[in-house]
Write a structure and sequence with these properties.
It is globular, with a radius of gyration of 18 Å. It has 315 residues and is an alpha/beta fold. 30% of the residues lie in helices and 18% in strands. The chain starts with 6 loop residues before the first strand and ends in a 10-residue tail after the last helix. The strands form 3 sheets. Strands 2-1-3-7-10-13-8 form a 7-stranded mixed sheet, sandwiched between helices. It has a 3-stranded antiparallel sheet with strand order 4-5-6. A 3-stranded antiparallel sheet has the order 9-11-12.
Length: 315
Amino acid sequence: MDMGNKRMAVLVGCNYPNTRNELHGCINDVLTMKEVLVKRFGFDLRSVQLLTDAPGSVVLPTGANIKKALSHMIDQAEAGDVLFFHYSGHGTRIPSVKRGHPFRHDEAIVPCDFNLITDVDFRQLVNRLPKGASLTVLSDSCHSGGLIDKEKEQIGPRATITTNNAKVPSQSPKVIPFESILQHLTSLTNINTSDIGTHLLEFFGSDASLKFRLPPLERDQFESINPDEGILLSGCQANETSADMSANEGGGKSYGAFSNAVQMVLKEHLGQFSNKQLVMMAREVLQAQGFEQQHPCLYCSDQNAGATFLWQPEC
């Protein structure tokens, strides 16, 4: 891909304050990334949109607002542009209707209003990219492997790392179980059904995920455009959880384990490196820290696996 003229980003941090699902490091993750994008990767601050659920936030990271921000970014894109989406927050898995799906679940992120954004939504966004533009998604959330539907696996469940005995600081999984999401949505709709799509359509209407708004035959037509320009760096495999680290130990600040691992790699390696190298180095960082059940993954075309992360300009 040619070097881009524009560099645009949407950064979303959901801490779910004052709820039983509260996390602590997600807003810190995207604030740190915002600084790195500007100082290292040449992003204009005016082209970086930040959505968080911090107290006083004017625009909250609801499902509709996140999709609106992503759609607007893609609408502005031209050939050669570099687009980036960093999400730090809860993820979940919903029952899959796809035949032969390896985990029998589909992946989704959980915005602050529980209006799920699914793998089908990310596939549709990637398919809308103009030729020659790229969209890199870094999702620090549980079950984030495979979050771009039908994207090719480059580093995934088949890649393993040996375990060690390193001590892991206090942590919480960044996951809201399907049953808890269903219970919450049922309280909003008062409909007695276990079909999550019914609840989402009833409460969010046209803002609900495409996965639930489109008939199955039309939804299945969202095939990948081979090779496409979607690049997913996931915090874990589809059947794993990602950790939210507490600040209790050592008096440090809270952070997402994967987001922090990426930042550590960026600090230690100032030159260019590929998407594949970044994911493998982040895996090594997590392994050294004792995260034996969290394996970051990479999904993209063969060409983009070896492409420079965020097309970093040469020093």
